[in-house]
Amino acid sequence: MSNSPVSTKKQKGISIIQYACIAVLSPFKSRNSIKSQKGVTMIEYALIAALITIVVLVTLQAIGPQLNTTFNSILTAITNANSSS
Fold first, then answer.
1. What pTM did the predictor assign?
2. Residues 21, 28: contact at Cβ < 8 Å?
3. Rounded to whole angstroms, how far apart are CA atoms 8 and 24?
């Protein structure tokens, strides 16, 4: 055994040096992992919002003429009711 200040004695499969490196670097890895997950989650929410927007626009375009006819009928009925009063 050498007289070096850093021991390389094995403990349960990893050396003390490896354990120290993991202990020192793990907070940095966790922060990057959390930031990465937040970015992925943000992208997922943006894609969901875009999909909902597309569905709403397509639906409105499909039923738009029917809504226009319905509202014009209502407007005509209200106008005729006011004229006859």
1. 0.45
2. no
3. 17
